[in-house]
UniProtKB/TrEMBL annotation:
Gene3D superfamilies: Homeodomain-like, Tetracycline Repressor, domain 2. Keywords: Transcription, Transcription regulation. Pfam families: TetR_C_1. The keyword Transcription applies. It comes from Pseudonocardia benzenivorans. The keyword Transcription applies. It comes from the Bacteria. This is TetR/AcrR family transcriptional regulator C-terminal domain-containing protein. Residues 56-199 form the Tetracycline repressor TetR C-terminal domain.
Length: 218
């Protein structure tokens, strides 16, 4: 129902009609619409797997697989993306659906296993998810006004924008129309992973020195 018409179209009454049940009976299974939406998040994120770094795969390879898996889920359920990305922000961490916390635990564990200290691993997770959520939100909002139109300006509906106020956007019509979400994701991940590798190597270099300095002082 959400896939077809969006989150706002979902109500207990409409769901009851679709199931052929009294809507009031649904509250035996979900105490509120919010709880029902949490269940939707759990169901969708059950398909997101964060594989362990096995078979010689580096931690960055695992992050890339996870990112593309999340993107695939988002593109399959674009109307659910706001539930996955923005809804958890209004809920304390420990009260969020368990399915939203499993990737956090798995990625932090992955980065700690790669050599990051726990605080650095949490920082890495936040950078990763912040970039990933922003990319996915942007991609699902890249709607085409007329997919059969061959002129890029008309295809994206940019012809409706005043040329004087939006010269840059209108001039970028071809680049906007040629947007490749998977390629853009990989380009962003390249930058992210390069930064995390730099932090990891810097931490590994400074770690023994700090320990040696502490031992000498004592």
């Amino acid at each position: 129902m959400i896939d077809a018409d969006g989150v706002e179209a979902l109500s207990m009454r409409r769901l009851g009609r679709a199931l052929g049940r009294d809507p009031m009976r649904l509250y035996r299974f979900a105490a509120s619409k919010d709880e029902l939406l949490d269940g939707v998040v759990e169901l969708v994120l059950a398909d997101l797997q964060v594989p362990r770094a096995v078979d010689g795969a580096d931690w960055d390879v695992v992050l890339r697989r996870c990112a593309h898996s999340f993107r695939a889920i988002a593109l399959a359920h674009p109307h659910v993306v706001p539930l996955l990305v923005t809804r958890p922000l209004a809920t304390p961490l420990g009260l969020r659906p368990i399915a939203t916390l499993r990737p956090l635990e798995a990625i932090v564990d992955l980065l700690v296993g790669a050599g990051f200290d726990p605080k650095g691993a949490l920082h890495g997770y936040r950078l990763f998810t912040g970039f990933l959520h922003g990319h996915v939100l942007n991609e699902v909002q890249e709607q085409v006004a007329d997919p059969d139109e061959t002129d890029d300006l008309l295809r994206l509906g940019l012809h409706r924008l005043p040329a004087r106020d939006f010269p840059r956007l209108r001039a970028l019509a071809h680049e906007l129309a040629a947007y490749d979400g998977a390629a853009e994701l990989d380009e962003g991940l390249d930058i992210l992973v390069t930064g995390l590798r730099h932090q990891l190597s810097a931490g590994l270099r400074s770690g023994p020195a700090h320990r040696a300095g502490g031992a000498g002082a004592s």
